[in-house]
Amino acid sequence: MLKGERLATPPLWLMRQAGRYLPEYRELRAQKGGFLALATDPEAAAEVTLQPIRRFGFDGAILFSDILMVPWALGQDLSFGAGEGPRLAPALVDHALNALTRAPERLEPVYATVARVKAQLPPQTGFLGFAGSPWTVATYMVAGQGSKDQGETRRFAYADPAGFGAVIDAIVAMTIDYLAGQVENGVEAVQLFDSWAGSLSPAQFERWVIAPNAAIVEGFRARCPGVPVIGFPKGAGGKLPAYARETGVDAVGLDETVDPVWADTYLPEGLPVQGNLDPLALIAGGEALDGAVDRILAAFTERPHIFNLGHGILPDTPIAHVERLIARVRNNR
Known about the structure:
With about 325 residues, this protein is α/β, with parallel strands linked by helices. It has helices at about 25-30, 35-40, 40-55, 70-75, 110-120, 135-145, 150-160, 160-185, 200-225, 240-245, 260-265, 280-285, 285-300, 320-330, and strands at about 60, 75-80, 85-90, 125-130, 190-195, 230-235, 250-255, 275, 305-310. A 7-stranded parallel β-sheet has the order 1-4-5-6-7-8-9. Strands 2-3 form a two-stranded antiparallel ribbon. α10 (about 240-245) links the parallel β6 (about 230-235) and β7 (about 250-255). The chain starts with about 20 loop residues before the first helix and ends with a helix.
């Protein structure tokens, strides 16, 4: 499908399908303790990746990991405080990039997870790896944590574009290696998550979203020819067509704010799309869910389409609603 074939019933997987809405995940995480301990234990991380496949039979498995593995491999310390979100230290807003000591060996547990999943995955199920896109990863590296408007990183990018460009370049290079390592161990396609792409002006979007993602796609294709790349620039809105054309990705993920009819009209003809059910519609269930699913399916009757959410599944999502979604997509009822 990612190579341009349209299927009568679109393949289906959900962002964050391996996670907190599943009781089996919550039980395993409680046993392991913190998130990083879970994500760097290949046996446990493989189990988490496989849990939603066993329960729901999704068409794709998405590697259980985190976008901040790349800054960790670049030498920042990574921690996940209870109720606080991730922390990276030292924050690059006041520390030089060259003060970090690269530690690519920190990625080895991820590769071991991939190999374990591949050995256990049903042959009919696709296997997706992923990485964070440079802009989004850089927002955490610069500020040391997430923020509502990425203001600190945006100011840094304007004030010191050369210094910020060095951070972006380091992320690009490590990401190419990271994705290639995932492919070498068994993933069949990869996704680039740019969760904060929507916070940039058009010129900054061109410089810090489109250009670095294009560099990753080019470098990754040289290493892994024929392996599809999905780009997901959340919040890109009207900049999506330029992103699709200029990055060279094989498919584009649509967030829930994108009108699927508009996307079908303005994205390059024949380009596969992924998405874009509102995660809150999935929580609502019932007729609201059915109507939202039907509108998306109707918009992409002539275009290759992977059914997915517009962003990650939320922790309070009822399992019965996921089952209803799957039935609606697969049985058109």
